[in-house]
Write a structure and sequence with these properties.
The protein is an all-alpha fold and 82 residues long. The protein has 2 domains: 1-38, no CATH class; 41-82. It contains 2 helices and no strands. It has helices at 19-27, 42-77. The radius of gyration is 24 Å and the shape is elongated. It starts with 18 loop residues before the first helix and ends in a 5-residue tail after the last helix.
Length: 82
């Protein structure tokens, strides 16, 4: 594991004037820029996250469909809406 304390991270002159780093200096953060934000292997990260996106979409669809099914069953059984 790498040490990411402010003293161990060298300043990056190319990122000094980015908007998020200007905000960091305005807030008085310990470094002149915010580290991170750039994924070195973005394609692999997206590939790893893809199953989670599918699960999330499936859960949302299941919740919506279940709402309709329960509403329909409630109407068929004659229970008043809440």
């Amino acid at each position: 594991m790498t040490d990411t304390t402010p003293a161990s991270i060298p300043p990056d002159p190319a990122k000094y004037d980015e908007e998020r780093n200007v905000h960091a200096r305005r807030r008085g953060l310990q470094q002149p820029y915010i580290t991170g934000g750039d994924d070195p292997d973005l394609e692999e990260a997206i590939r790893e996250e893809r199953p989670y996106v599918r699960i999330l979409v499936g859960m949302v669809v299941a919740i919506i469909v279940l709402g309709f099914v329960l509403g329909f069953l409630g109407a068929m059984l004659g229970t008043p809406p809440a």
